[in-house]
């Protein structure tokens, strides 16, 4: 189906089902319960998980397949956001023109940066991409103020021309009249689930982006990218020039980032220079490594984990902590609050850092490797497994797993 073998088709169907039932999966606890603090089934978080999942999928095509570590992908995210907002100001509040322009402009910008940066490899390539990202941030923040509106950010105004919209057109971001912010709630046995139009638009695009990355992983082009990562020098000795392949991967990855930036603008029609900061570029690196670089599902899992932790742990303040430990004696309650306080609220990055350190140390393959280890505990090995005196050839591991 769709050019995939039977195993990949099952894999894609599982991803589609998980995406479709995200509102249920991220809202496991009833409203008003003690555990409701850890629910994440509200539109803003679900949309961000889908959007940053796209961002991480695209980054994984470059880093996971070729081994080229870029710290500058935030620049393409920002270019995509600015391009989409300009389309909404000039043409229409329909998100399609904005998303298309976001991908085109980010792709062209990635072509320019990649053409220069890919003349070097290793740490020198990473530093070059970081330098370009910081230059882009400073240009957007101060030099290109007529285009970016500087520190205030580019935003929609009532007097914008929007030449494709009529008098009756929606003043909000929409998909052919379907309001992106529209949502409805469904309550079942004390659980309240929110179904948001914007999330499902982002989710459908994320599934398409995932399918394209799956085809890239399985294609001869993907095999060439893995050859670049494995031994670029040996590849050159065979007469193949690796640079066109790495440049193509860089541009594709940049277009994914631009798509994510366009969707961010569609969710909230405001583009600011902060989306180009190096911290955003570092965040997608952490997402990919945390989930499992070089795997298909890993970057999506990493993006979901980080955005969930960011939204949940950042809301836990001292008042919430005192509520949790109120049944304990005062001295013990204050002691526990003092110990936990640095890891939540504004200090949630410390928790993220510790989690990242543990994963890199004990699970180099990320969350995907952790899932495989857990599944391995429940699998019964066949009798005589490992006894192969004739040394028969083994099957090739599945890249998606």
TrEMBL record:
Stored Pfam families: BPD_transp_2 (PF02653)
Ranges of Basic and acidic residues composition bias in the record: 383-393
UniProt-annotated stretches for the region Disordered: 379-401
Domain of life: Bacteria
Main location: membrane
InterPro entries: ABC_transp_permease, LivM-like
Topology within the bilayer: Multi-pass membrane protein
Transmembrane segments annotated in the record for this chain: 12-29, 49-71, 91-116, 123-144, 198-217, 244-264, 284-309, 350-371
Protein location: Cell membrane
GO molecular function ontology, one term from the record: branched-chain amino acid transmembrane transporter activity
GO cellular component, one term: plasma membrane
Sorted UniProt keywords: Cell membrane, Membrane, Transmembrane, Transmembrane helix
Record PANTHER family: ABC TRANSPORTER ATP-BINDING PROTEIN, HIGH-AFFINITY BRANCHED-CHAIN AMINO ACID TRANSPORT SYSTEM PERMEASE
Protein name per Swiss-Prot or TrEMBL: Branched-chain amino acid ABC transporter permease
């Amino acid at each position: 189906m769709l050019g995939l073998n039977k195993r990949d088709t099952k894999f894609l169907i599982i991803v589609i089902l998980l995406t479709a039932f995200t509102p249920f999966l991220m809202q496991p606890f009833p409203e008003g319960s003690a555990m409701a603090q850890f629910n994440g089934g509200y539109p803003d978080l679900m949309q961000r998980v889908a959007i940053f999942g796209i961002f991480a999928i695209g980054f994984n095509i470059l880093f996971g397949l070729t081994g080229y570590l870029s710290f500058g992908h935030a620049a393409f995210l920002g270019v995509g956001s600015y391009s989409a907002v300009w389309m909404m100001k000039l043409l229409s509040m329909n998100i399609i023109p904005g998303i298309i322009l976001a991908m085109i402009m980010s792709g062209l910008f990635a072509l320019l940066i990649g053409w220069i940066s890919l003349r070097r490899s290793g740490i020198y390539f990473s530093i070059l991409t970081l330098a370009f990202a910081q230059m882009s941030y400073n240009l957007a923040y101060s030099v290109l103020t007529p285009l970016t509106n500087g520190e205030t950010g580019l935003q929609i105004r009532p007097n914008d021309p929007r030449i494709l919209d009529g008098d009756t057109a929606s003043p909000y971001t929409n998909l052919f009249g379907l309001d992106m912010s529209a949502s409805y709630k469904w309550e079942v046995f004390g659980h309240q689930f929110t179904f948001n139009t914007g999330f499902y638009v982002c989710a459908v695009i994320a599934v398409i982006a995932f399918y394209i990355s799956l085809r890239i992983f399985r294609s001869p082009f993907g095999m060439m990218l893995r050859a670049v990562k494995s031994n670029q020098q040996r590849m050159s000795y065979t007469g193949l020039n690796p640079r066109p392949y790495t440049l193509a991967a860089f541009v594709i990855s940049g277009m994914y980032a631009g798509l994510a930036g366009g969707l961010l603008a569609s969710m909230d029609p405001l583009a600011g220079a902060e989306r180009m900061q190096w911290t955003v570029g570092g965040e997608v690196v952490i997402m990919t490594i945390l989930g499992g670089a070089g795997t298909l599902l890993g970057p999506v899992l990493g993006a979901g984990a980080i955005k969930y932790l960011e939204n949940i742990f950042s809301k836990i303040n001292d008042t919430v902590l005192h509520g949790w430990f109120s049944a304990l004696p005062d001295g013990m309650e204050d002691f526990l609050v003092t110990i936990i306080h640095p890891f939540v609220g504004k200090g949630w990055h410390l928790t993220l850092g510790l989690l990242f350190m543990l994963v890199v140390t004990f699970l180099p393959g990320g969350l995907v490797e952790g899932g495989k280890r857990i599944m391995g505990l429940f699998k019964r090995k066949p009798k005589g497994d490992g006894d192969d005196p004739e040394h028969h050839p083994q099957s090739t591991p599945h890249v998606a797993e």
